Amino acid sequence: MMKSSPLRLLSVVFAAFLAACSTHGPYTGSTTYGGGDEYGVTVYKTIYSTTEQAEAEAILHCKRFDKVARLLSCSSILVNSCTFACDRNVTAFLPPKGNENSSKLRSGSGFFVSDDGHVVTNEHVIRSCNSFTLLRGSESRLEATVVAKDQVLDLALLKVTEKPAHIARFRRGRRIRVGNDIVSFGFPLTGLLSSEGNFSKGSVTALSGIDDSSSMLQISAPLQPGNSGGPLMDYSGNVVGVIVGKLSAVKVAEATGDIPQNVNFAIKQGIVEKFLAGNDVGLEHYKSIETLDAADIADTAKLFTVQIVCW
User: Fold this and answer.
1) pLDDT per residue as tens digits for the range 188-247
2) Are residues 38 and 60 in the same domain?
3) Do 59 and 147 fall into the same domain?
4) What's the rounded Cα separation, in Å, for the pair 143 and 41?
5) Is 142 within the bounds of a domain?
6) How many angstroms separate the CA atoms of 266 and 243, rounded?
7) Which run of H or of E encompasses 294?
8) From the CA atom positions of the chain, what is the Rg in Å?
9) Is 183 inside a domain boundary?
10) pTM (2 decimals)?
11) 28-68, pLDDT tens digit by residue?
């Protein structure tokens, strides 16, 4: 009697295990292993199936949660499989491809500042846009209108008809100082990074911006395109500014031969407050006494920060 090699025996056992634990999809030779959820799924394949077939199953899986599938990686080590993430279907909220507005798409961040549905962001985020959609995590979209905008201050005020469940609160008392720790929250690099938002930490590195602009703070918290308009907060979770942008590493490198690192900027709290007061928006203020855990600040920021998509 011919003996089976240990490797062949292992392959047979593992194949039987997958067959018992998997549910067959619509394509021959590919199976979806149980355990996929609204955040993603792993599709196991045979040597006869393709990545396209695996992706088709992932698309069907993610569609159950009104999301779209995004390939993370494929592996043929021990197990022939592909792993997919289920991302929020932002494209469902956008003009269809070929529409004249599809090339004008812009995105950024903003946050609720009043119980009446006011949202503050940067003016450059919504510049040249006529339609505005606010996205909150995996929740449904909110349609917004422009209340006011100031290109010089680079601030804009939007409004939705729905009453927000949570709004940001602003720092009361002593102003922020150089060296104070700060955090930011926003939605950078739409379609590439997490649709649930990104949280970053840093410190105040200067009390003025480029060319000694007195309306800006310089901060070291890492920022990417799409963070613009998001809240800058202290470690009590109170707003101390609005994220506005970063120094262009490419342009600085071309001019100086050096690459700047984490040279980013936010509009100061006082400038934001005057802009909102001029548009009859009352704010909540709290003293920054208690130091909170960064994870708790992030959880709170998620509740009042929104992604802004416009065209």
Assistant:
1) 887 677 778 899 999 999 999 988 999 999 999 998 888 999 999 999 999 999 999 887
2) yes
3) no
4) 31
5) yes
6) 4
7) helix 294-304
8) 24
9) yes
10) 0.69
11) 344 444 456 766 777 776 655 677 777 777 778 777 777 77
